[in-house]
């Protein structure tokens, strides 16, 4: 390059020389350019590939959890085992085992080992389903009811093909006779695999086939609601003050530096703040979505402030000048004219901030939202988990069945994030005005 | 009772608005000229009630718990609690609370039942008092504001003053948060340092935060030297950056200079998706896919790889950082003035030469700022390492080994039962303090570099 720009005293001869030099170096330089482009394509390809593997591995392990293996039993509610005056106690498990044994010819329930294996086919929750039915309608005692209940986790895995029948028996979770029993059930046509509504209507459980996301979804809902109620007004108030009213002085600068720093503080530090201040000093309850929501609000506020300021800045000064010109006060200008015009941008930023808050895990772990809770919270002050902490708990659980539950929970979480971001994009494109 | 207090608040606010607006309208109907619109007269009353009463209710809710606890404790018979330490007292208190809420286990002592009754009585009393106080206060304020309505009253100015104050309060919340973080960390860290000397924490080479279960237990003293934890953090950060920086930079260069608009339209959202994936998902990805893959690859080469290898956690963290670095680099490259690019191209440089010799050097300060922010992110990142990295602090720089990080230790020390008086819990706050300081310094440095560089071209 320098050759080209150098002044040449003997023009005609040098010019030819330069052209030749340039021509000679061109292939090398073009090769270099191709190399750089190849590196760029490889880098982008890596990013694409990783995203593809991420999604593919989650879908391939998670889709199975959206269906659950059930068996349909004709249960004779034996008055010898279940008596109306003893409800809700009674031998519900024995009744179910007897119903199951009728479908398994050649099984001797007197043998304790076999009996144990037959009992193991049904989920632990099956007897409670039956109990609740009978308690709700004691007239069922002495009758035969048709009942569809989930099978326990190993059989669910077997039905989904996740337990390899070729594995040597000693390394397999289900022995040959257990598989034979299940095959008999399949042959009898009582095994079905419907959509797993339990994933959304059950709370957490130690048993994978019963574990659901209801508690986590409600916990996340309360936490996000608290977060929104706190962060939205505070964020907008702060942004309006800083953008429209604050005098340019040291104090305003200090606030701004503070907000920018808060946006970059590691999330786990907010967890420490919440643990020490909200729980330690103020004595608020542990594991409560309300405390989680307050913590998330502190983290989301900088995002909302920054988005709101950008949206306010985008409103052209002519609007403000026109309003001022006909006698509006400065606050009237902002609240009657600028803020409504900036609202789509503010809402977009808020939704994106809430989406980030929905995926935030570490601060919620520190305030105890990773507890094992088997009922959905009824208010923001009850103990609960949240969607991301539930994922963390399930990822930590040793049972095989939780692997696909975890992936399924992640797919649900990602689904919510996609919906929230889609709403944000829609708002931006539908309502944002170009001036 | 709480909802009753809020209903009182809401009712008083609406009544105030309605009363004062009606009064202002009557004045206007008499033919007098008001200074402010009638709405502002109403708003003035509403805000005058809303703000102080809301503050009273919130303060009451916040303070009633500790105050009632103290009264109940002091009301206990002396012989029952005379020689108990803080822990045992709080245990008794929580037992009394669970009795009060109707969960009785076994047969508690008579004085505990009495205390539970007292607790319930006090709670009831406190609830009623709160409602009464807020109702009384609302009534007084309503009366005072109602008397101020007159043609000459500058209601709009008053409302705007209140709104200004509220907005200033909103912006102060950011400062309160920072102060809260600093105070909480300093307070708990100082308690920690009163148990463990500062030099041991800063320079100790062992991190074994176990506490003796019984008095005088040997070999269970617990060691609190943060050096191995710091080294582990740095190992994972380096692994993450060696993956993320080249990929991120080449992505940015290609997208900025060579990519067709169509590729850009696809690649940008893909990078945004990578940036938007929650870190707990990356953590699960690391243990589900990456760690087993690295392990079996190592096994096929005959290299022993730890199941919690730093490579898996660091690599996945690198993926998380790619969009971060590429977007910073893209912005920095785009901010280089067009004249520089046009000048280089006009001199006959290829596009690659323009990029590598002109644009990239000009953008380096911005890129360095971005990489520094990525470093601070990697140090503070929690979920990926909590799920994929190890728990035991080993002083090693081998990325195939299992290492632990500051954030992993904070989370593992604080998960489960936490009481604020043993070094194990407080050590987490000391680590949090170091984490806060380190990331703050890096952030300030990075922002300064980015800003300074921006000024050159603006």
Automatic annotation (TrEMBL), chain A:
NCBIfam families: 3a0107s02c. It is found in: Cell inner membrane; Cell membrane. PROSITE patterns: ABC_TM1. It is a multi-pass membrane protein. Belongs to the binding-protein-dependent transport system permease family. CysTW subfamily. Signal peptide: none annotated. One of its GO terms (molecular function) is phosphate transmembrane transporter activity. The lineage of its organism: Bacteria, Pseudomonadati, Pseudomonadota, Alphaproteobacteria, Rhodobacterales. The chain crosses the membrane at residues 35-59, 221-242, 262-284, 290-312, 333-355, 408-427. GO terms for cellular component: plasma membrane. SUPFAM superfamilies: MetI-like (SSF161098). This is Phosphate transport system permease protein PstA. Coiled coil: none annotated. Keywords: Cell membrane, Membrane, Transmembrane, Transmembrane helix, Transport. The keyword Glycosyltransferase does not apply. Its main location: membrane. GO terms for biological process: phosphate ion transmembrane transport. Residues 217-424 form the ABC transmembrane type-1 domain.
Automatic annotation (TrEMBL), chain B:
SUPFAM superfamilies: MetI-like (SSF161098). The keyword Cell inner membrane applies. GO terms for biological process: phosphate ion transport. Residues 230-446 form the ABC transmembrane type-1 domain. Its main location: membrane. Coiled coil: none annotated. Keywords: Cell inner membrane, Cell membrane, Membrane, Phosphate transport, Transmembrane, Transmembrane helix, Transport. The keyword Cell inner membrane applies. It is found in: Cell inner membrane; Cell membrane. PROSITE patterns: ABC_TM1. One of its GO terms (molecular function) is phosphate transmembrane transporter activity. It holds the Pfam family BPD_transp_1. One of its GO terms (cellular component) is plasma membrane. The chain crosses the membrane at residues 39-63, 125-145, 165-187, 223-253, 273-297, 309-329, 358-379, 427-450. It is a multi-pass membrane protein. Belongs to the binding-protein-dependent transport system permease family. CysTW subfamily. Part of the binding-protein-dependent transport system for phosphate; probably responsible for the translocation of the substrate across the membrane. This is Phosphate transport system permease protein. It comes from Albidovulum inexpectatum.
């Amino acid at each position: 390059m320098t050759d080209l720009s150098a002044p040449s005293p003997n023009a005609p001869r040098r010019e030819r020389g330069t052209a030749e030099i340039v021509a000679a170096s061109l292939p090398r330089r073009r090769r270099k350019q191709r190399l750089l482009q190849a590196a760029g394509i490889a880098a982008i390809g890596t990013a694409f590939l990783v995203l593809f593997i991420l999604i593919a591995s989650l879908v391939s392990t998670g889709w199975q959890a959206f269906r659950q293996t059930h068996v349909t039993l004709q249960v004779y509610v034996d008055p010898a085992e279940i008596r109306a005056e003893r409800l809700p106690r009674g031998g519900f498990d024995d009744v179910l085992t007897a119903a199951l044994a009728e479908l398994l010819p050649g099984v001797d329930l007197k043998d304790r080992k076999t009996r144990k294996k037959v009992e193991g086919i049904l989920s632990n929750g099956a007897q409670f389903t039956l109990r609740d039915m009978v308690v709700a309608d004691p007239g069922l005692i002495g009758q035969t009811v048709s009942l569809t209940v989930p099978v326990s986790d190993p059989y669910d895995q077997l039905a989904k093909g996740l337990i390899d029948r070729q594995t040597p028996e000693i390394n397999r979770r289900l022995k040959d006779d257990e598989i034979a029993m299940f095959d008999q059930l399949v042959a009898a046509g009582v095994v079905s695999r419907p959509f797993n509504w339990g994933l959304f209507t059950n709370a957490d459980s130690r048993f994978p086939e019963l574990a659901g996301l209801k508690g986590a979804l409600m916990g996340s809902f309360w936490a996000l609601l608290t977060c929104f109620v706190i962060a939205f007004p505070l964020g907008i108030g702060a942004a309006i003050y800083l953008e429209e009213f604050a005098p340019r002085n040291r104090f305003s600068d200090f606030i701004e530096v503070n907000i920018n720093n808060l946006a970059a503080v590691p999330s786990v530090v907010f967890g420490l703040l919440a643990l020490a201040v909200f729980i330690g000093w103020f004595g608020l309850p542990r594991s409560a979505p309300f405390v989680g929501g307050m913590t998330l609000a502190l983290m989301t506020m900088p995002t909302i402030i920054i988005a709101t300021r950008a949206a306010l800045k985008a409103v052209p000064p002519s609007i403000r000048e026109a309003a001022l010109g006909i006698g509006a006060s400065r606050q009237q200008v902002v609240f009657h004219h600028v803020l409504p015009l900036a609202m789509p941008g503010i809402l977009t930023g808020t939704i994106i901030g809430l989406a980030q808050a929905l995926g935030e895990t570490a601060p919620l772990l520190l305030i105890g939202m990773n507890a094992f809770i088997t009922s959905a919270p009824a208010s923001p002050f009850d103990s609960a988990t949240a969607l991301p902490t539930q994922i963390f708990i399930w990822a930590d659980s040793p049972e095989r069945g939780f692997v696909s539950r975890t992936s399924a929970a992640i797919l649900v979480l990602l689904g919510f994030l996609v919906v929230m971001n889609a709403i944000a994009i829609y708002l931006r494109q539908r309502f944002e005005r170009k001036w | 009772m709480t909802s009753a207090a809020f209903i009182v608040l809401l009712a008083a606010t609406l009544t105030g608005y309605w009363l004062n607006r009606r009064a202002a309208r009557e004045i206007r109907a008499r033919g007098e000229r008001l200074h402010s619109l009638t709405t502002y007269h109403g708003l003035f009353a509403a805000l005058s009630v809303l703000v102080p009463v809301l503050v009273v209710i919130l303060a009451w809710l916040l303070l009633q718990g500790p105050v009632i606890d103290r009264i109940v404790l002091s009301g206990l018979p002396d012989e029952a609690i005379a020689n108990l330490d803080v822990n045992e007292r709080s245990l008794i208190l929580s037992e009394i609370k669970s009795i009060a809420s109707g969960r009785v286990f076994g047969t508690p002592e008579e004085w505990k039942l009495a205390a539970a009754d007292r607790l319930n009585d006090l709670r009831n009393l406190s609830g009623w008092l709160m409602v009464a106080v807020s109702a009384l206060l609302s009534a007084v304020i309503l009366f005072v504001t109602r008397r101020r309505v007159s043609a000459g009253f500058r209601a709009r100015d008053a409302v705007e003053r209140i709104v200004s104050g509220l907005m200033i309060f909103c912006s102060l919340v950011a400062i309160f948060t920072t102060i809260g973080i600093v105070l909480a960390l300093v307070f708990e860290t100082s308690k920690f340092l009163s148990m463990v000397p500062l030099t041991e924490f800063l320079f100790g080479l062992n991190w074994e935060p176990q506490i003796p279960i019984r008095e005088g237990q040997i070999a269970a003293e617990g060691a609190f030297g943060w050096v191995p934890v710091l080294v582990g953090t740095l190992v994972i950060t380096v692994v993450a950056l060696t993956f993320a920086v080249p990929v991120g930079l080449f992505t940015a260069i290609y997208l900025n200079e060579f990519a067709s608009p169509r590729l850009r339209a696809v690649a940008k959202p893909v990078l945004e998706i990578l940036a938007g994936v929650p870190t707990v998902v990356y953590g699960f990805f690391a243990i589900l896919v990456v760690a087993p893959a690295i392990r079996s690859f190592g096994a096929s080469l005959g290299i022993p790889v730890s199941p919690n290898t730093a490579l898996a956690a660091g690599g996945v963290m690198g993926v998380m950082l790619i969009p971060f670095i590429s977007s910073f680099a893209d912005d920095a490259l785009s901010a280089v003035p067009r004249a520089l690019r046009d000048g280089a191209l006009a001199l006959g440089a290829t596009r690659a030469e323009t990029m590598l010799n002109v644009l990239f050097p000009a953008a380096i300060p911005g890129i360095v700022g971005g990489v520094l922010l990525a470093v601070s992110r990697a140090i503070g990142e929690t979920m990926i390492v909590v799920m994929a990295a190890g728990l035991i602090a080993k002083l090693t720089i081998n990325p195939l080994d299992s290492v632990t990080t500051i954030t992993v230790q904070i989370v593992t020390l604080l998960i489960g039962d936490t009481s604020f008086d043993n070094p194990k819990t407080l050590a987490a706050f000391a680590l949090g303090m170091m984490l806060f300081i380190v990331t703050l310094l890096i952030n300030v440095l990075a922002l300064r570099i980015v800003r300074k560089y921006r000024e050159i071209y603006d």
